[in-house]
Design goal:
The protein has 108 residues and is of the alpha+beta class. The protein has one domain: Beta Barrel (OB fold (Dihydrolipoamide Acetyltransferase, E2P)), CATH 2.40.50. Helices cover 22% and strands 39% of the residues. It is built from two helices and five strands; from the N terminus they run αββββαβ. The protein has a five-stranded mixed β-barrel. Strand 2 and strand 3 form a beta hairpin. The longest helix is centred in the N-terminal third of the chain and has 18 residues. The radius of gyration is 15 Å and the shape is globular. It starts with a helix and ends in a 6-residue tail after the last strand.
Length: 108
């Protein structure tokens, strides 16, 4: 019973964090794929977002490019089984706009 209480508390906290998002964010980085998902990796290693296209946006055309993305953040909805095999970020960025900064990502 104690475990259920802790799980509910964690679930509530993550819901509150998701509600804390105040409008769109803009980030720059490189688009790649991981386990079938599109990922935006910022120049700062270890900072990445799982990208979620909206409307008519086709992420495939941005693969390998450096882009600027504006969108809304939310926790990624991965199951624990998915998390163990995926390198995707726990944060999903639902895109409202995307533009190319450079046709190729800079070398690290």
């Amino acid at each position: 019973m104690k475990k259920l209480g802790i799980a509910m508390m964690l679930l509530s906290a993550s819901f509150l964090l998701a509600q804390d998002s105040k409008g769109p964010v803009t980030v720059q980085g490189c688009v790649s794929r991981s386990s079938g998902d599109y990922i935006l990796t910022k120049q700062d290693p270890g900072v990445s977002y799982e990208l979620q296209a909206s409307g008519k946006t086709k992420l495939k055309q941005y693969l390998g490019q450096q882009v600027e993305v504006t969108g809304t953040e939310s926790p990624s909805l991965s199951t624990s089984a998915d998390t163990s095999r995926r390198s995707a970020s726990p944060v999903t960025l639902t895109i409202t706009s995307i533009k190319t900064i450079a046709k190729e990502c800079p070398a690290h």
